[in-house]
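hi! just following up on the protien thing from before. the input was this:
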Amino acid sequence: MREVAQVFLKLGIIGFGGPAAHVALMEAEVVERRKWLTREHFLDLFGLTNLIPGPNSTEMAIHLGYLRAGWRGLIVGGVCFILPAVILTTLAAWLYAQYGTLDTARAALNGIEPVVFAVIGTAFWRLGRTAVTGLPHVVLGAALAIGVLAGLNLVAALFLGVAVGTLVLARPARGRALAVPLGLLFLVFLKVGAVLYGSGYVLVAFLEDELVGRGWITEPQLLDAIAAGQVTPGPVLSTAAFLGYQLGGVPGAVLATTGIFLPSFVFVAILGPLAQRLRATAWAGSFLAAVRLAAVALLLAVLIDLGRHVVTDVRTAAVAAAALAAGIVFRVATHWLIVAGAATGLLLW
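and the predicted 3d structure came back as:
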C-alpha cells in the first residue's frame, strides 16, 4: 500500500503533458522499473480504459492500484495521483485571482513540453514492439492513427479498431465568477465525469456547453482554467478544481473535483474484476491483441499531433531529441527528464 501511494504521488507531481504522457510515465515506472506487470498486461489495461468514459490516465492509476494492492489500492492509487494536481491547480486559481497571470509557469512548460513528447515517444517505442508483431498489426495500427489524425472521432476509432482488429487478428490467431448553488455545481461536474470519453482534452467542449452555456463563466475564463490544468502536473481534469474555486471558493473546488473524478472510481471498480476474468477466457486473445494495437495506435496519433505543436523550432527540437535519446538509449528516469526540461525552459524562455 505504501508503494502504491509513493508511486502515484510521485507521478501526480511530475505528470505534465496530458493523458498520453501520464500513461508513458506509468509504463516507465510500473513496467520498466518496478515490474508490477508485463507490457502485454499494461497495454490490455490501457486499451480497456479507453473503451469506458472518464479520464483515461486517472483510470489507469486506479486500475494499477487495484492490481497491486486490491480494493484499498484502487482508492489510494487514484487519490494519490489526483491530489497533487488538485492542490497545485487550486493554488494556481488563487494566484490567478490575485495576479491574473501564470507567465513563469508557462516558461517552464515550454521546456517541459518537448520532454513530454520524448517521454511519449519512448513509451511508444517500447509498447509498440510488444503490440505490433506482424504486417496486419502495422496496417491496422497505421490506419487507426491516420484516421484519428484526419479527424475521425477518437472513441469511434478505438471501438472500430478493436472490433475490426478482433476479427482480423483472430484469423492467424481571475476573481469569482457568478455564484452558483454548490449542489448544482457538484452535479454538473459529476455529469461531465460520467460521460467524458477519449481524453482530458475533450473536456473543453463539455465545459463550454455546461459552464459557458449556463453563463457561469466566460470563454476567456474557461481557456485560462484549461491553461492552469496544463501548466500543473497530473490529470488535466484538475481544471475542475480551478473552475470550482472560481465559482465557489475552496468548497467549490472540492465539490467540482469530487464530482468529476468519482465516476472513474466506480467504472474501474466494475472493470477491474471483469478485466481479470477476460484475460482468463479462451477467446480473449484476439480481442486483447486488438485492444493493445488500438492503444499503441492512439499513442502514435497523439505523438504525431503533439509533435506538430510542440517541436516548432531549433530549441524545442534539441530538447526533444536530447530527452528522447536519454530515455531510449540511456534509460534516464522520467522524473529527471521532467526536472531537466523545466530548468531548460526557464533558462531558454
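Residues 2-174+265-348 form one domain.
The CA atoms of residues 30 and 36 lie 5 Å apart.
cheers
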